[in-house]
Amino acid sequence: MFIGGRSGHFFFNKLIQIFVHSQIFPNNVISTLDIDITRPMMYLLLDHSKIDLFTLREQCLQIDLPDPLEPLDIFGHTFPHYMYLQDFITTCAARVVKLSSLKILNDIVVLHDCYSELDIQVVPVSIIFGRFPGRERHTTSRTKRYLELFGFYKFFSVCFWGRDSVIRFLPKISIRDIIIKHGYNSDIINKLIRVAHIYFIRERVVTVGPHLLARRDLLEKLLKSKVIIHVIREEANKKHISPKIVQKNILFLIKEISANFSCIAIYFTDYLMSWVWRKLYQGIKIRGSQSVLQLSQSGHTIVYVPCHRSHMDYLLLSYILYHQGLFLPHIAAGINLNFWPVGMIFRYLGAFFIRREFRCNKLYSMVFREYLGELLQRGHSVEYFIEGGRSRSGYLRSPKTGMLLVTLQSMLRAGHRPISLVPIYIGYEHIIEVSAYTNELRGATKKKEGCISMVRGLGRLRNFGQSYINFGKPLSLVNYLDQRIPEWRECINQNSLQHPFWLTPVAHNIAQEIMIRINNAAAANAINLSVTAVLASQEHSLSRQQLTKQLECYLDLLHNVPYSPDATIPDMSAQELIEHALRMKKLTLQKDSLGQAVILPRESVRLLSYYRNNIYHMLVIPSLIATIIIKHKKVNRIELCRQVSILYPMLKNELFLRWQLDELPDVLDLLVSELVRQELVREDQGVINVREGGSDQLTLLAAGICDILQLYTIIFSILMHYPNITRKCLVKKSSIIVQILSVLCCMRALDFCDQSLLTSIICAIYDAGYIKDSIGSNDIQEMHTQNICIVLFDLVSQDVRMAIESAVRRDAHL
Q1: pLDDT digit string (tens) for 122-151?
Q2: Torsion 270-272-274-280 (CA) sign
Q3: Residues 418 and 332 placed together within one structural domain of the fold
Q4: What positions does the domain Phospholipid/glycerol acyltransferase occupy (predicted)?
Q5: 621 lies in some domain
C-alpha cells in the first residue's frame, strides 16, 4: 500500500480492528505445530501486503507469538521477523527477483553454517479474505489468480470480506533440517521457496476449494462429453427425433440438477445460521475433523457420507465444515426440496438436486453421472446421504449404492485423483421431525415439503440441547480396491458406458463398511442414555435411585469396554445426566411419599424410542448377554458364546455392528468381566449366574433387546410353518402378527409394524445366510431354522412365546 510511517500504522490498525474478524487454524497454534517460542522464528507471508502483515500482528499478539513488526536479533545481526514469498517469485516463473530479500535469506543460511546450534523456524502463514474460490477463466493463469490481490483491490476485499477471513498457520520449516538434508549449496533457497509455495497453494485449495466453472462453461463441457454425445445420438435414433431436441432436454436436466455457488449467499447465510444455532442448541460438539483436514492437505477428493436424521443435517454439517476452515461441499439434495425460495437458496449454498428414482430414465441417469463425475474429477468435495432418506425409526437405514457406484465410476475415469469417503455420525438431543416420523410409522402419508410446512416448523423452534458431529475413520477407495481388487487399475479410462463386473458387489461391500464406520462414531448423550434406561422398565418409570444406578451401569460399560475408539461418551455423572434430561423435558419427575420417580409420559414413549435407537447398537451385545444369563440362571462362557454367535450375524447385518464373528469371544470375555466387576453377576469356575443385589440392573440391561428377540421369534416361527415363503409374504405376515400381538400381549415392538423396517430386518436375516431365496427347502435349512428357534424360544418369556405360536397357527389356518 502507499501509506507508511506512524500514520500508516494507525491506519492499518484501525482498518483491522473495524473490518477484520479472523478464524485462526489450528486452534492451539503453538502446541499443534510444535513451535518453540524460545527459538528464533520468522513468518513467511504469501503476498507483499501490509494489510496481511498487520492482520497477522493482531492475531500473534493474542496467541502469545512474537510480534512480526519487532526486529529479530540473531548473534548481533538484525533481521525482520517476516518475509514475503512474492518477493522471490513472479507469476511467470519460480525465480528470485528481489535482491534485498534474497540477501536476507542468504545471510540467514550463512549464519546456520557458522553456528551449529542455530535453527530458525520459518512459519508460513496463509491469510485469506473471503471464502469464494472464484470462477475459472481459460484466459487467466491460475498462479496469477493466487497473487493478484494488491492495492485498492485488496483494500476493498478487506472491507467487504474482512469479517470472513481465515488465518492458517502452516507446519513450520526448519532451516537446519533443510541444510542437514540437502547440504549447504546455492539451490537451498530455491528448495525452501518451492516447499513454501506448495504449502500456500495447497492450503488455499483446502480453505476455498478448487476454482468453479462458470455455469455456462459447465453446460458446454458436459455437452461435449463423449458419453453425452453418444446418449444424444442413441436417444435421437430411438425416439426418431432431432438431436437438437435431445440436447435441449439435456440442458434442462443439467439446469435442474446443478448447483450455483454464490459467495454472497454463503456469507450472509453463515451469519444467519450462527444466530440460529445459538438459539437452537446449547452447543455443537465436534470430534475427528482433523482427519478431514489431513486428507484435504494431501490432495484427496473428499466425499462426506453422513447418516440422515433431520433436515438440519446438511445445514449443520456445512456450517461446521465452514468454521473448521474447509471449503463447502456440493450436497446431493432430494428434488422434493427444490421449491421456491428454498431450492434457489440451497443451490447458492452448493446443493444439487436429484430425483428419487431414475433407473428407467437412461438420459437422466447419464446426465447426472456426468455431472457428479465432473465435480469429483475437478476435486470438489461432495456430500450425500447413503441411506437415501431420513431415518424414521432412529436406526440406520439400509444403504443405497447408486451414488457410490457413480463415485467409483468417476474414480475409474480419472484414476490419478484419490477419493476418500468420510463417514459422519450426526446426533441430536431433540429432532423436530420425530412426531412426524411416528405418524408415518403408524401409516400416515408423508407430508410434502413446502413454504407452508417450513413456516409452521419455524413456530416449533426452541432450545434443542446439544448436537453432535463425529467424523468417523475415512475410507480410501484406492487403498480399498488395491487390497480387494488388485486388477482395478486395468479398468481406468476404459469405456465409461460400461462398468466392470466387480463394481456392483464392491459398491455393496463399501456401503456396508461405511454404515459400520458411521455407527462406530456414535455419540451417547444424556437423552438417549436416560431414555434407554426408562424404556427398559415395564411401566416406563424408575425411582431416581434406580435410574442413577442404571446410568452408572451404562457409563461404566461404555467407558471400560468401549464400543469403538471413535465413539464418544458424555463426561458427566449419572446425576448430571438425569438433571439435563429433566431440563430438556424429555423425562418427568414425580414426587410421592416414597421419594422421587422419573416417569416417561405414555404419549412420549414412541417419540422417545427414536433417541434410544440412535445408540441401540452400542448396548445390544451387553443386553443379549444379560438376557441369556437371566433366562438360563446359570451358564458357562462356552455356552454363552455359542448362543450369542448364533444370533450375532443377524444383529450385525441389521444394526451394522463392528465385530467379525471370530472377534466375538474376546469381546464377550471383556463384557462378562465388566459385569462381574460391577457385581451384577458372579463367576465361579467358568459358570456365570446372577448376583444377589444386581438383578434389577441386569434385568433393565436385558430388557433392551427384548423387542428384537420377540420379532426374530415371530419371523422364525413363520418360517417353521412356511419353509418356502417368499420375502414379500414373510414381511406381510410378520407385520400382521406383530400388530395383533402388540394389542393382545402389549408387546412393545410397535416400531417394527412399518413394512419398510420389517423389510430391512428380514433382508438382514437373509444376508446373514439364515434364510435362502431358493425355492424348496432342504433338511439342513430346516434343522438350522429349528436350532435358531430353540435359542429364541428360551430367551423370550413363556407368555410371549405361546402368544406367538398361537398367532402363527391361527394365521396358518386362515
Answers
A1: 899 999 888 877 666 544 444 444 444 456
A2: negative
A3: yes
A4: 302-429
A5: yes
